[in-house]
Amino acid sequence: MKRAAAWALVLASASLFVERLVTPAASAPEPRAAVAETPDQTPPAVAEVDREVERLRDRLNTVPEIAPSMRDPFTFGRTPERPRSSAPIPEIVVPDIPPQPALPKLVAILSATGNGAPERTAVVALGDDVQFKHAGDEIGAYVVQSVDADVLVLLDPASQTQHSVPLH
Length: 168
Known about the structure:
Layout: H1 2-22, H2 44-61, E1 105-114, E2 117-126, E3 129-133, E4 138-139, E5 142-147, E6 151-156, E7 161-166
Antiparallel strand pairs: 1-2, 2-3, 4-5, 5-6, 6-7
């Protein structure tokens, strides 16, 4: 079976080859007659295209001026700075505020029970000095308003402001 298929393929190929040799070549197409057009006979669309081509060529002769780039390739992600105005900035006059006296440092809170109610005493440090203070005592310019479980409340009698000093 394989041998018969091979012989059939050889015979088919040989017959195609012989047919190609025997068949005459197709004739060449007839040359067209050249149409000579004069420039006066061009349609208006072609004349319009020619005018457009000339206009574009004239544009190529003039090189447009390119503005310098404001982009800096070496700084990524930063917004460009705005140009600063040359007008002087008026000075802001800030009134002098007297500095607040330094608050003492609360070192400890002592608690004792007297007359059935707990009485607290604050241990405060003023620089190298350690003092024991109760509610109503004075510490520098401040008056001790209250001694709570973990905070000392001071009152400034001049401005009536309260300051809380936490336990350190």
